């Protein structure tokens, strides 16, 4: 029962890390592409070409299709709605910030070099913090698993030893565990004296 849960948990963590990496790579590549083209749709098409098959590419293609062929659902316009499709899948506030910067830059124009540079630096710090947090979670998880395994082994050893002591007591005709044996169980294996 425990092993399948651990394997599923491992795959879940790998999936989360992949999504995080995809979202960070998407933001960086989108900003670099926007610096070159100055247009969101052109930047998205360039980003689409960078990513191979996978969910990020599907999200980008869906956004592009909505921007080129879709009709605005609300008053936000097709560009914002297309970008929100990606935001909904990745649920990352940083992604929404990047999109907002690009929407404003395309709508109002002007020099966005300094802003893009600042956002790229912020994304780099965001990635470092994210990967550091994931590493800490993995270490904590590993420590917990090791602690549980050690506790189970200690309990099994203590119960085995207690069973051996019972057999010895029966062979000697005793009905009570000696103080030395009870202390050995407590001192070596942490077996509570009250239970002996």
Summarize the structure in words.
This protein is mostly helical and about 200 residues long. It contains seven helices and no strands. α1 runs antiparallel to α6 and α2 packs antiparallel against α3. The longest helix is centred in the C-terminal third of the chain and has 60 residues, at about 115-170. The protein is rod-shaped. The two termini are about 30 Å apart. The model has no long low-confidence stretch (mean pLDDT about 85).
Short summary of the structure?
This protein has 196 residues and is mostly helical. The chain is built from 7 helices and no strands.
Main attributes of the structure:
single chain, 196 residues, mainly alpha, 7 helices, 83% helix, 0% strand
Distance between the termini: 30 Å
Number of distinct helices = 7
Structural class: mainly alpha
Shape: rod-shaped
Into which percentage range does the β-strand content fall?
Answer: under 5%
What's the main sheet like?
none
Unreliable parts: none
Q: What is the chain-wise order of helices and strands? A: HHHHHHH
Helix content: over 70%
Roughly how many Å is the radius of gyration?
A: 29 Å
Query: Using DSSP, what is the number of strands?
Result: 0
Overall mean pLDDT: 87
Q: What is the topology?
A:
Blueprint: H1 2-37, H2 40-50, H3 55-69, H4 78-90, H5 93-108, H6 113-172, H7 179-189
């Amino acid at each position: 029962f425990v092993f399948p849960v651990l394997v599923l948990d491992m795959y879940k963590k790998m999936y989360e890390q992949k999504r995080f990496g995809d979202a960070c790579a998407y933001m960086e590549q989108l900003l670099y592409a926007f610096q070159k083209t100055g247009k969101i749709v052109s930047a998205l098409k360039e980003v689409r070409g960078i990513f191979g098959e996978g969910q990020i590419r599907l999200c980008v293609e869906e956004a592009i299709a909505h921007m080129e062929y879709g009709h605005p659902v609300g008053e936000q316009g097709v560009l914002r709605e297309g970008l929100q499709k990606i935001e909904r899948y990745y649920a990352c506030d940083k992604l929404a910030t990047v999109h907002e910067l690009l929407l404003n830059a395309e709508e109002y124009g002007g020099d966005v070099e300094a802003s893009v540079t600042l956002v790229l630096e912020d994304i780099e710090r965001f990635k470092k913090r994210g990967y550091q947090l994931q590493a800490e979670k993995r270490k904590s998880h590993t420590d917990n698993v090791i602690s549980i395994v050690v506790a189970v082994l200690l309990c099994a050893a203590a119960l085995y030893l207690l069973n051996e002591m019972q057999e010895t007591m029966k062979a000697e005709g005793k009905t009570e565990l000696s103080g030395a044996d009870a202390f050995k169980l407590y001192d070596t294996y942490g077996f509570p004296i009250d239970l002996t």
